[in-house]
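Structure in, sequence out. Go:
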């Protein structure tokens, strides 16, 4: 299951200039059964697979338009 959310805002500072800010979140989970149990040193002895990944990113800047 994967989830993604993004929020952006922009504010006019003066004629031709604006400030912007972005916030972005994405993440996901995985649950399953591994086909290669115990075949390499990185494999678990149990066939269960579980993974969680999350990222949160903020960015801000000034936009100039002629």
């Amino acid at each position: 299951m994967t989830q993604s959310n993004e929020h952006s805002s922009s504010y006019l500072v003066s004629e031709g200039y604006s400030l912007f800010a972005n916030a972005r979140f994405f993440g996901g989970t995985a649950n399953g059964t591994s086909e290669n149990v115990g075949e390499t040193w990185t494999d678990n002895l149990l066939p269960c697979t579980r993974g969680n990944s999350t990222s949160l990113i903020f960015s801000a800047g000034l936009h100039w338009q002629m």
